[in-house]
Amino acid sequence: MLIGPHTHDEFMEVARNFHGYPAPGLIIGGYMVELARRGLPEGILFDAISETEQCLPDAVQLLTPCTVGNGWLRIMNFGIYAVSLFDKRTGEGVRVHLDVDKMGPWEEIRTWFLKLKPKKDQDTPLLQAQIKEAGPDILTARPITVRPDRLGHKGKGLVGRCPLCGEYYPVSSGGICRSCRGESPYHAGPGFAFEGQPALRAVPVAEAVGKRALHDMTRIVPGEHKDAEFTAGQELTAGDICRLQMMGRNSIYVQDAADADDAWVHEDEAAKTFAAMLAGEGVAMLADPREGKANLTATRDGLLMVDTDRLERFNLVPDVMCATRQGYSMVLEGAKVAGTRAIPLYLSRENFIKATAMLQDGPLLQVLPMRAARIGILVTGTEVFQGLIQDKFAPIITQKAQRLNCEVVKTVFAPDDAALITQGVRDLIAAGADLVVTTAGLSVDPDDVTRKGLMDAGLTDMLYGLPMLPGTMSLVGRIASEQAPHPVQVVGVPACALFFKTTALDILLPRLLAGVEITRRDLAKLGDGGLCMECKSCTYPKCPFGK
Fold it and tell me: What is the CA radius of gyration of the chain?
């Protein structure tokens, strides 16, 4: 097989001139690109995706019009030795990967690819000879279709000047360039924070009379009191001297002795700015900062939502902080949900700009109202339906629903029969239920047909199973019905809820009532903290379960 217009030996020299030496990965990559090209129709315009950043992109750039610079080659570094060429318009194309299962006759290629020997111990001449002999026989090609959202090329967009380093950058990156956000590879320069504090002069307490305090000063009585005894801007009197000395203050900072220029931001100004940007709907700063800290409060009952990824990025900025209550906590109006501050008395203007840039994409905190749902309960199980045992499920679900201000509009009992379960769901929706809770019938027993009954009733977007104990076999989804103006939410509760006071239902139900979209990734994250300790006296939600 030719590699583009080249023989194997010719391509070895092309690779040497471009890459520095004829790297095995680049030579194999040449065969991969050629095999992919032969699978495309003649005359089409195509793009390329390399699933590794090593060697293979060079083969694409040597043999096709696709380069990193023109945007036709995208590197998605999965660490997989595979390349795809595909029609720019339709996304239809060919993916070729290096196939270990086909390397049997060529042991040196296998040894090189799987790194079974250190590079110095590999037989390079034998490796190159085997690559030439194998050619495309160690490759596998298959048709692919690239997702529509991956087609086309996004422009850089608007360009602006970074307020920190002065370099021009795509403003879509945020309020400051990515280098100044902390991604700079350099020890100094863009992204490198100022050190120290402005030059402030300490004034002896005895000389502070008539002057104004530069910052809040806290008095602590262990176990009894902790608050600002003196606040920023407060004029100090002769009577204050003794109290300051009793607090252990022999010298203090005062406003007219401060020498902070525009390169610095006072802690109170920083805290107020951060709080205003952090707070979304249902959250507000109801009082000025105290002791340098601004508290954020829920302005309504509901479910606290925290953008944890952006919160982490904010807290990575030097000398600032924000601490929140656990995301997805149910909170009451007036409850404190977060606190933020600058850590030093004065925050460098550079770090202030960095911190606010992390918040420019919108608030990090909001409290979502939880609707008062009309709940329909479907109790499944032939033993309950026939009256062989008394139902205990309906009272448990009813109690949990009423605790969240929901109304149970109807309870239906069905045996382990998919058709009757389907009919039971429809009866609940006809009764006005906008959230259906099914109980039991979700495990692996042959009589457990609840899922089938739900699917026959029109269940879509089903997520079944989650990493929580108790409650692993829980289910969520929705059913569209002509009898309901909106899709009816569905949550399936396994039989463990009969025994355990707290299960996965207690984690899922508030999210459903708040209208939070639940994804498979959301469920996967519940594994951290998803193990109930089965305490003799349950204190949920004041415990780690579900957090």
Answer: 32
Give the model's confidence band at 260: pLDDT under 50 very low, under 70 low, under 90 confident, else very high.
low
The whole-model pTM stands at: 0.71
CA distances to 126, 168, 283, 502, 537 from 301, rounded to whole Å, are: 72, 44, 10, 22, 27
Contacts of 235 (CB under 8 A, 6+ apart): 210, 211, 212
User: Are 362 and 280 within 8 A, CB to CB?
Assistant: yes
Q: How far apart are CA 188 and CA 167, in angstroms?
A: 15
Rounded Cα distance between 211 and 235, Å, is: 5
Bridge pairing between strands 264-266 and 159-161? unpaired
What would the pLDDT profile of 514-527 be if each residue is shown by its tens digit? 999 999 999 999 99
Q: Residue 280 in contact with residue 292, Cβ under 8 Å?
A: no
For residue 30, the tally of other CB atoms under 10 A from its CB is 30
Strands annotated E in 357-425: 365-368, 374-380, 407-414
DSSP labels, 239-274: THHHHHHHTT-SEE-BGGG----TTEEEHHHHHHHH
Q: Parallel, antiparallel, or unpaired for β 46-50 and 73-75?
A: parallel
Asked if residues 303 and 516 have their Cβ atoms less than 8 Å apart, the reply is: yes
Helix, strand, coil distribution of the chain in percent, nearest 5: 30, 25, 45
What CA–CA distances, in Å, run from 504 to 184, 264, 306, 327, 547? Answer: 43, 48, 20, 16, 12
